[in-house]
Each structure stands twice: as structure tokens, then as C-alpha cells.
Amino acid sequence: METSQNAHFEAKPADAEAADTVIRVIPRMADLDPAAWNALAGDSPFLSHAFLHALETTGCVGADIGWEPVHLALFRDGKLDAAMPLYIKHHSWGEFVFDWAWADAYRRHGLNYYPKLVCCIPFSPVPGARLLARNDADRSTLIQAAQKLMQDLNFSSLHILFPTEPDHAALEATPLMHRSGFQFHWNNAGYADFDAFLAVMTHDKRKKIRQERKKLANAGISFRWVEGAESTDADWDHFYRCYADTYARHRSEPHLNR
């Protein structure tokens, strides 16, 4: 496959037993079988073939906006057996990892930080699998292939953002630098209702939350839950206005379109 950097990339894993095991760069999700990809990706909606394909077909990602897809795909006997969502990045927008200082350091030393290779879910800090494989050997093979692609293209770096287990184990066995971050996640511990959730808190916290909810009710603010299949064009228009307004308030442009 050809990338915009005019680099043809096709590699055979060094320890591959089968003669027809090969890794290729795939520039479009449309070139990959959705069922085979989803079997590797699991149940994360952000890793689904449909989501990543939609980002490409709607122009949310593409070479012209600095998000060029160069997904890695490992084929055995012609079937997709492992994969890695991968992009050539010409900037650091939409990653939720702030490496501008690294880019500035490169610039001050007369070096190019961009382009770089980034394995991630565009525009989302949601953790998840990044090395889509069924075993550690294939995960290691994907990392090695990504590093080789980076070297072949003469890029500054390879970044794998917000991975989860079992990717961690494969990554820790590499010379890649490891970055630690913090996220706050709420998990439902089997609460029967909201009162059951409040019951595990101290009296002062319960009182404060109830007062805040009462203020919302008195202000006439209510919420409506809409399932995706039930949503209307008006719902999506309203959602997008809120989404775009959030970016505008932070003096930025929204990454997704409508």
C-alpha cells in the first residue's frame, strides 16, 4: 500500500512460521473486513469498524487535516489475524495528550517532530485495546512493525495512547518510553437506584448533592434519555450545537462534523 509519504510497506514477521503471514499498511478501513476487525476489537464502540470507517468517510480524519490512516494489518492465510489503528499525524490536536513541549524542544534543536506515528482512537481519551491481537506474540509483532514503519518513513516517534491490559505487558518489553497519566472513572457498584448510591456517602455529601439537584429542578431543568435508534435529526442537531459550543468556549474548532 502507498501512503502520502510514498512509502510502500509490507513486512513479514521474523518468527512467522507460515510463508503467507504478512503485515500491510491499510489506508482505508473500507479495505478491511468489518467482521474480522470487530472480532479483534471486542465490544468497544470506539474501536468498532463502523466508527473508524465513519471518521474516514465523513472527512473527520484524512491526510488533508493531519490525520492520515495507515492502519497495520497482520494477515495469515489471507485472513486478518491482528491489527493496529494507526495514523500519521502532522500536529497534536485531538489526542488528549499534550506533547507540545516535545515539539518545541525538537524545533529549538533544528529537528522535525512532525510527522509522527500515533496509535489511538481519534478525538477520544477513552482507554482500550490498541494492539488488536489474540496473543502476546502478535502484539509484539505489531509493535515491531510500527517501529519499522516509523523508521522507514524517517519519522520522529511512535506513540501508543491510552492502552489497557494486556497491551501493557507487550509494551513494557520494548524500549519505548512509558508515560503515566491519571483518569477518574465512575463505576456502578450495583446500586439499585440513586438513593442507594447516596447511601454510601457521608451525610454532608448526600445533603450537598440533594441541594444541587433541587436547584436544577427548581430552575425547570430536566433530562431526557434517548436511545440511538430513537434519536431524530433534531436531537443530533441539538447535540452537535452543544458539542461545537464546548470547543468554541475553549477557543478551538470541533473535530467531528455534522
Question: Could you explain how this protein is built, in words?
Answer:
The protein is an alpha+beta fold and 258 residues long. The chain folds into 2 domains: 10-172, Aminopeptidase; 194-249, no CATH class. The chain has helices spanning 34-41, 49-57, 100-108, 136-152, 167-172, 194-199, 203-218, 233-249; strands at residues 10-11, 21-26, 67-69, 71-76, 79-84, 86-89, 116-119, 158-160. It has a 4-stranded antiparallel beta sheet. Helix 4 (136-152) links the parallel strand 7 and strand 8 (158-160). It starts with 9 loop residues before the first strand and ends in a 9-residue tail after the last helix. The model is unreliable at 1-7 (pLDDT under 50).
Shape: globular
* Helix proportion: 25-40%
Largest sheet, strands/sense/barrel? 4 strands, antiparallel
Give Rg in angstroms. 22 Å
Number of strands: 8
CATH A-level architecture of the largest domain? 3-Layer(aba) Sandwich
Poorly predicted residue ranges = 1-7
* Sheet with most strands: strand arrangement: 1-2-4-5
